[in-house]
């Protein structure tokens, strides 16, 4: 028996099983984290049941509470009684619920903890309304009536259909206002600013002649007239959108009148069918990935963060790939293999272990202050002292992450070049090709799968970095995307939003932590999905290249 165990041990089978077990545990942990993130994040968009509770504490009057039960937990009874609350029994533990009551503009906060022993009754009335608003979070209560210009137009059973009609009309007005503010007025403001910079540039060059001044003033007058017309239209829309209101009843019996201008959508979750809930779910999910954030990033969507993350990673890939390949080709194919070359390889490997915040400081000092400041002095003197490239922007963030991920691409490319058989190089040279032609047409294409592997690793690291980006261009909320309809269309000097920083901001800097918590999980899951999509695209290209050059390697 002992001999069999020794033979089994010497065969190496225990190590195989040990490695297999470690891989299995790692995969279970990864899938467990993803499952937890998905469960906490994706359930946020489902229309939860809104309950009405009769709540009676031992030393207070009965209350009617309305809201969504967000979480439940069991806590020691001593923790509750220590806070001065008298429980109705001597149980060692008590269940408490986190109730989202909404109506923050009325009650001051939209979450409260309630104790299960004090819940006298619980029901889910079908006429309870949830109103998503642009400010102050959700409203929970009962719809009483609808008004136009202060005059009552619907109440009772007719109020709901009238409410939906006015809410849809308000949404259309908001779209028109958004189009005017962000597109039309934005274009006019951009043109006016360009005229100002042109005037300043001519002044600095001493070429601001009376004819040029008159031409600029004429263009400015046209733009000012266009701006005034847009402003008048905008004021009319704001007056129209503020005309109508609705009356609702809160959980404490008060009736309040609120404007339609703040309504995003309204629904009755307790009376919705399964099909209606599924439709609502996908509507909210689409809003999350396609809309802009609101309410201090705790409501709405995160499209600017998705756009900024993807654009930054693409720019980083375009910059780091040629630099890494050129450096690896030089070290492997041209540099004399000696002490200096070995020292450079050691330095490259050590750079891969430098903390990312150090790269952020380097990017801030070299790219932003030195290069950006120099560019401003040379090419944008008319804009000074306001910086153009001398402040954080997406180009500096991409360059910083390129330096951060450059060692990964260099090492992976060198490994790929070292695996190319020497006979292929010699055969190409024997057929009359130069060394440069051999590298460009034979060696580098065959090493392209390794290059793609380095790029995959670089993308995976760069997409999740946050610390260096906080110094070189990422912001909490970007007023405009780096890509728009104004020349030069791609504005590399603009600041941008990033999914990783958005997670940090919502999770740790939000004024309403409980409301922001589900969005942290949802955004984290989306960041993982974005990285997976980028990596899968690179893996597909790598596999295609590997199959293409497999016969040559053999």
Describe the model.
There is one protein chain. The mean pLDDT is 87. Helix content is 60%, strand content 14%. The two termini are 47 Å apart. The chain has 3 domains: 51-128; 141-287; 303-553, MetI-like fold (Orthogonal Bundle), CATH 1.10.3720.10. It is built from 16 helices and 13 strands. The strands form 3 sheets. Strands 6, 7, 8, 9, 10 and 11 form a 6-stranded antiparallel sheet that branches. A 5-stranded antiparallel sheet has the order 4-3-2-1-5. A two-stranded antiparallel ribbon has the order 12-13. It has 554 residues and is an alpha+beta fold.
Features:
alpha+beta; 6-stranded antiparallel sheet; 16 helices; 5-stranded antiparallel sheet; MetI-like fold; 3 domains; 554 residues
Helix and strand topology:
Blueprint (H helix, E strand, L loop, with lengths): L1 H9 L2 H30 L8 E5 L7 E14 H5 L11 E8 L3 H4 L3 E5 L3 E5 L4 E6 L5 E10 L2 E5 L3 H47 L4 H32 L2 E6 L5 E5 L3 E5 L6 H17 L2 E2 L4 E2 L2 H32 L4 H13 L4 H24 L14 H25 L3 H9 L4 H30 L4 H4 L26 H10 L4 H41 L1
Antiparallel strand pairs: 1-2, 1-5, 2-3, 3-4, 6-7, 6-11, 7-8, 7-9, 9-10, 12-13
Strand content: 5-15%
CATH superfamily of the largest domain: MetI-like
Shape: flat
In round numbers, the mean pLDDT is 87
Output the structural class.
alpha+beta
Largest sheet, in brief, is: 6 strands, antiparallel
How many distinct helices? 16
**Amino- and carboxy-terminal Cα gap:** 47 Å
Radius of gyration equals 31 Å
Helix content range of the residues, please?
55-70%
Count of DSSP strands: 13
Q: Quickly give the CATH architecture of the largest domain.
A: Orthogonal Bundle
């Amino acid at each position: 028996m002992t001999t069999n165990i020794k033979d089994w041990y010497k065969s190496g089978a225990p190590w195989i099983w040990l490695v297999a077990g470690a891989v299995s545990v790692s995969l279970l942990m990864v899938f467990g984290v993803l499952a937890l993130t998905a469960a906490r994040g994706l359930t946020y968009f489902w229309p939860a049941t809104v309950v009405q509770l009769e709540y009676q504490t031992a030393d207070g009057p009965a209350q009617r509470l309305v809201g969504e039960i967000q979480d439940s937990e069991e806590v020691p009874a001593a923790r509750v009684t220590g806070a001065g609350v008298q429980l109705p029994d001597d149980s060692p533990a008590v269940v408490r619920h986190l109730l989202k009551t909404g109506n923050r503009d009325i009650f001051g906060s939209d979450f409260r903890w309630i104790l299960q022993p004090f819940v006298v009754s619980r029901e889910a009335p079908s006429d309870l309304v949830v109103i998503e608003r642009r400010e102050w979070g959700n409203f929970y209560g009962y719809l009483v009536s609808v008004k136009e210009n202060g005059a009552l137009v619907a109440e009772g059973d007719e109020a709901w259909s009238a409410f939906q009609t006015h809410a849809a009309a308000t949404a259309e007005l908001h779209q028109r206002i958004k189009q005017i503010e962000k597109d039309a007025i934005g274009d006019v403001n951009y043109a006016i600013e360009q005229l100002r910079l042109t005037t300043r540039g001519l002044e600095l060059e001493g070429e601001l002649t009376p004819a040029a001044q008159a031409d600029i003033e004429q263009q400015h007058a046209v733009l000012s007239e266009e701006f005034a017309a847009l402003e008048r239209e905008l004021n009319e829309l704001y007056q129209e959108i503020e005309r109508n209101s609705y009356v609702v009843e809160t959980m404490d019996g008060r009736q309040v009148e609120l404007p339609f201008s703040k309504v995003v959508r309204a629904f009755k979750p307790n009376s919705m069918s399964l099909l209606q809930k599924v439709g609502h779910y996908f509507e909210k999910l689409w809003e999350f990935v396609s809309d802009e954030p609101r309410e201090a990033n705790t409501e709405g969507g995160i499209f600017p963060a998705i756009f900024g993350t993807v654009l930054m990673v693409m720019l980083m890939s375009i910059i780091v790939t040629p630099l890494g390949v050129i450096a690896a080709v030089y070290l492997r194919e041209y540099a004399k293999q000696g002490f200096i070359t070995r020292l450079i390889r050691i330095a490259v490997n050590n750079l891969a272990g430098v903390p990312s915040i150090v790269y952020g400081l380097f990017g801030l000092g070299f790219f932003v202050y030195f290069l950006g400041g120099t560019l401003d002095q040379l090419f944008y003197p008319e804009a000074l002292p306001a910086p153009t490239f001398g402040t954080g922007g997406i180009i500096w963030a991409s360059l910083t992450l390129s330096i951060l991920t450059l060692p990964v691409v260099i090492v992976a490319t060198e490994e790929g070049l070292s695996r190319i058989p020497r006979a292929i190089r010699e055969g190409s040279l024997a057929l009359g090709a130069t060394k440069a032609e051999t590298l460009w047409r034979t060696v580098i294409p065959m090493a392209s799968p390794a290059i793609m592997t380095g790029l995959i690793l670089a993308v995976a690291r760069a997409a999740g970095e946050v610390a260096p980006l906080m110094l070189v261009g990422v912001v909490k909320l970007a007023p405009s995307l780096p890509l728009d309809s104004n020349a030069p269309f791609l504005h590399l000097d603009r600041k941008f939003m990033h999914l990783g920083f958005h997670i940090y901001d919502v999770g740790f800097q939000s004024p309403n932590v409980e409301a922001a918590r589900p969005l942290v999980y949802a955004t984290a899951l989306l960041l993982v999905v974005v990285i997976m999509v980028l990596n899968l695209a690179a893996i597909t290209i790598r596999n295609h290249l590997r199959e293409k050059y497999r016969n040559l390697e053999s």
